[in-house]
Amino acid sequence: SFEQALDTPQASAAVVGVLTAAAFALRFYKINQPDQVVFDEVHFGKFASYYISRQYYFDVHPPFAKLLFGLAGWFVGFDGHFTFENIGDSYSDNHVPYVGMRALPAILGSLTIPVVYAIMKETGYSTLIAAFSAIIVLFDNAHVAQSRLILLDATLMFFMSLTIYSYVRFRKLRYWEFSVEWWSWLIATGFFMACTWGSKVNGILTVVTIGVAVLIDLWDILDHKKGHTMELFWKHFMARAIGLIVVPVIIYLSFFYVHFAVLTHSGSGDTFMSPAFQETLIGNELLLNSQELRYYDTVTLMHKDTKVFLHSHVERYPLTYEDGRVSSQGQQVTGYGHEDSNNNWQIIPTKALPETGPGRIVRHEDLIQLLHVNTQSFLLTHDVASPLMPTNQEFTTWPKDNHSRFNDTLFYLNLVDGNEGDAWKSKSSHFRLVHAPTRVSMWTHSKQLPDWAFKQQEINGNKNPTEKSATWFVDSIISQEGGYSLMLDDDELKEPKKMSFFKKFAELQLLMLQHNAGLTASHPYASSPINWPFLLSGISFWTENDTQKQIYLIGNVVGWWTCIISLSIFIGIIGADLLARRRGLTPLTEPTRNRLWNSAGFFVVIWAVHYLPFFVMSRQLFIHHYLPSHIASALVAGAVLSFILSDTVNYPISIAGRSTRRRPEELADLGVQGPVVVGVFAILMFVMFLYMSPLTYGTPGLDGETVNQKRLLSSWTLHFAAKTNAEVIP
Q: Quick one: DSSP state of residue 442?
């Protein structure tokens, strides 16, 4: 029959060849259009230029895919001068070899098609069904648009598909446990899994998917009815721990190792990092300008979070505040945002000092006084409520020559992450100033004081001596006592410090997690996950007003709705099967039911794990976050179509071991309707793809009427739409 002819290796190879060639054609078609920065190319193009110029940057995504872009850019001769500032900036005018950089995701996006085909073939579906699943991704407008631009998703989905493929190959060798091939596919799964995770934060979901599958697998091995010993179970457990934990972690860490090794110069990401990290970067401001502080130096102190100077002036606190509380009527101490001689404080020792030498350097946990230079009074805090916060202590000053309150002017200098004997440095030493008698830390917040303090910031004593936001640093050294020259020789000064890789890695990971959760700002094209499978809205990637061209990211309605219907049918079949078996009926043969639960079920797990977590995320979400799930739903659609068309499946498909009980073999038979259904579907997909293609490729420009015709759902927000008659009622 036609179908068996298609299932020969030669025919299968021919089908893959055609599908792959089509994928390359569609993804490379007019890849030089538009010759402008599109949507998130603003970020990922910029990061590639940072790798080439070796400037440190910070981003929430792991570096693997971005390193590949840097490599691609370097390979095609990009020198990193263009910084991808705004959507719509021209590549041609700036001579950026952008086509070479876009080619990377286009190649990976095209290669995803044969991988999807291979997953279906390896899972035991016939050539037609495998082609059906591949076509859903092949003719998808969203996948094509996403793969033709400098974006991370194509890399993510390529490695995600490879991970699933490798895991399927690994599972099929379960009767050849611990053989060379078995180990190879296990380690390949771990390797590709790390690449997926390393491409984008969402790649962690692929790790979870494989985790779920492995747990089910191990649970099966534990079953005492299968007659396995515990010893065998632990062997399996350790093998998977090596292949799916140890290997991926090493690979994942290696991406960051390369990331740090390449980015050795100071750049836009410096300020996110700790001072110790910043000082490892060549040309960093802290590294160049940081100096050790000595007693009797006059300095300005700045609050790390709100960027105000510690300031004082002759005006005093009013006797009573608006709420009737009383003040000490002492001299005001405030936070002031501008340079001013009233920000100058002199560091005074509380112990005898040697005449010269390192003994005059101020160190971690020294007990010091701060003298306000212009009013010759010491900084002081006491048990009086501060103006704005009754729970916090007031800061004021006390005349220099009056020793009656000496103890209240003593403060401990606590360097953040400091060790005994560490010198206090300008710029790079973050510190807290903790009052010796009352243990409060000097703190400020963004609320302003009333007019009597010229609307400056309140400084008060925070009851928590280790409060994170009570961090200050010395911004500048105004004058040095005794005219010491602290400037070292240039060479000695500019040598970057060292910091262990694991410390750097831990610091960056923590920041990435915090910032990813913090991306909650609203965006006009953000959408909630419930809309995604139904294609209720897309994203405007790029527009050009004169020519009325636009790129609008939206999937192929035929494909996406087929997928969502397939998922519903799958749930229906499983429900019916459970009900029937509850009543002792077996409508499905053993092989068919196995295929449904284990293969289609695995695909549904992939879909669910890549989709459902978005419902609990508070960060801004977009339809392109659904694309990995869309690939999984294309696999489900193939499995469901096979179930509908054929009563039998290709069985068995796992590789039999020496002692495996042979099962009766059977072949799937899709009948005449198989080629017809897949053929008609392919034509429908292609026609819809062509119809929507001006929105995918951003060319040609469309007039208002045409735009309205392309707007298949009223919830799509396309640009340049014409007003319909109904809207122009006078």
A: E
